[in-house]
Design goal:
about 450 residues, pyruvate-formate lyase- activating enzyme, Arc Repressor Mutant, subunit A, 2 domains, nine-stranded mixed beta sheet, 18 helices, binds iron/sulfur cluster
Length: about 450
């Protein structure tokens, strides 16, 4: 089936952004022996080690969310989960692959890590740091939902060495927040941000989403100006996508199954009566790109620098994002928690993706792995090319040095086409996205994939 250019520009169902390679759909449980073997090998020299911890609890489920999250767990369930994750970290710490290596970076993601109480966080972090200390880590990131923060919780995080606080703001408009299922209020953003600044966190990131349902130009401009007024160190702007398992996607699928009317009507029907006047269409890709372009221009006018397809930072030299830099350059990372992804000694690993299986395996002292994929040297090369292109820049010498490959020759046809189409420039040893190429780079990345991985469902 061919898809017209106009169809491609609509926000259809499915994943748009590329987060890994080879695609997740090729990871299998039959590869698990390779995962166990990877843990038994000593680490490759000079490869940094990271730890990702998935805290899968949220106050409510955002309608665009596709993560493994739970909104119905009580304090006893949470204690059970935190015990399991500590056990998982203990199992990992005992492997030859860790071998006394210090952690280079740590990331608490979710879900909503800040959903945990200050006491739960204090206990969890105290136990984790005994097993794998992060005092020497270059970065410890913690994701927060503004409405879950209190000052004493932030003090606990500061005391445990969190260096980078990431605030999931997404939008400032109360109706848009509510309609998209976000739990926080606008005033909670300012309150949380003020406390975080007062407590001196070294880096604060604000997440925004271009294209939440109900978004329009005037509101988006206000969101950008309000973000600028807060002056965060880093701003990450996602473009709304609709993977299959979100509430919005299910509403659309259900409606389409019952009717030949457009998906727009589904959203109108589902709109709560208290939000009249909202335009409930989902913006198409050109509109979302225009919003990101506007935001980038405004931030650059105010002294920020573009550091990737999704981020602007106050100062590229000092505002680093070590988690992303390390991971995209092939660092090792243990992905702990239900459904988490990691990459160890050349093997991709994902944990089992149900609560029951995850808890049961760890209570029995077993690895909680669900599927894996052992990468080849060529897979790793392509993975780095694809992911690093999202920073807008590829350094030919870096790949020559690491893989013994001149990527200008290895990917000559693809690079030539992308250059002719105006998405890239190649000057000497530097391959750079054009500004227009960068904000839509994800849709061009599959051309670098080996043939067996093209046109497959990504997840
Ligand atoms: S807060 Fe984040 S993880 Fe939780 S439901 Fe919303 S988008 Fe998903």
């Amino acid at each position: 089936m061919t898809v017209s250019a106009a169809e491609q520009e609509k926000t259809g169902l499915g994943n748009y952004f590329i987060a890994n390679y080879p695609p997740f759909s090729f990871w299998k449980n039959t590869f698990l022996p390779e995962a166990y073997a990877a843990l038994e090998r000593p680490p490759r020299p000079k490869v940094p080690l990271g730890l990702y911890l998935h805290i899968p609890f949220c106050r409510k489920r955002c309608k665009f969310c596709y993560f493994r999250v739970y909104t119905d767990k009580n304090a006893s369930d949470i204690a059970t989960y935190l015990d399991a994750i500590v056990r998982e970290v203990q199992l990992l710490a005992n492997t030859p692959c860790v071998g006394g290596r210090p952690l280079d970076y740590v990331y608490f993601g979710g879900g909503t890590p800040s959903y945990l109480s200050a006491a739960q966080l204090d206990d969890l972090m105290t136990r984790l740091r005994v097993i794998l200390p992060w005092d020497a880590a270059r970065e410890v990131t913690f994701e927060c939902e503004p409405g879950t923060l209190q000052k004493h919780k932030l003090e606990t995080l500061r005391r445990h060495g969190i260096t980078r606080l990431s605030l999931g703001v997404e939008n400032f408009n109360p109706e848009i927040l509510q309609y998209n299922g976000r739990a926080h209020l606008e005033e909670e953003i300012y309150r949380a941000y003020g406390w975080a600044r007062e407590l001196g966190f070294p880096q604060i990131n604000i997440d925004l989403i271009a294209g939440m349902v109900g978004e329009d130009w005037d509101n988006w401009k206000r969101c950008v100006q309000k973000t600028l007024a807060l002056a965060p160190d880093c701003v990450t702007i996602y473009q709304m996508e609709l993977p299959y398992n979100t509430v919005f996607s299910k509403e659309i699928q259900q409606f389409q199954a019952n009717s030949d009317r457009s998906a727009r009507m589904t959203l109108e029907l589902a709109a709560p009566p208290e939000t009249p006047g909202l335009d409930l269409t989902i913006a198409d890709w050109p509109t979302k790109r225009a919003w990101v372009r506007y935001a980038f221009d405004e931030f650059v006018k105010n002294g920020y620098e573009i550091s990737s397809a999704t981020t602007v930072v106050k100062n590229k030299a000092t505002t680093r994002f070590i988690y992303r830099e390390a991971l995209w350059r092939g660092a090792d990372m243990f992905g702990t928690g239900v459904a988490s992804f990691g990459h160890i000694n050349g093997v991709h690993i994902q944990n089992v993706d149900t609560w029951e299986a995850y808890i049961e395996k760890l209570q029995n002292g077993q690895w909680p792995f669900g599927r894996a994929f052992p990468t080849t040297e060529r897979d790793r090369l392509i993975r780095e090319v694809v992911l690093l292109l999202k920073t807008g820049h590829l350094d030919v010498a870096y790949f020559q040095d690491k893989y013994g490959v001149d990527i200008r020759r290895e990917f000559a046809d693809v690079l030539d086409q992308l250059t002719r189409d105006g998405w890239l420039t190649i000057r000497g040893e530097s391959i750079d996205c054009t500004p227009e190429g960068l904000i839509q780079i994800d849709r061009h990345l599959p051309v670098f994939f080996d043939p067996q991985y093209i046109s497959s469902r990504y997840t």
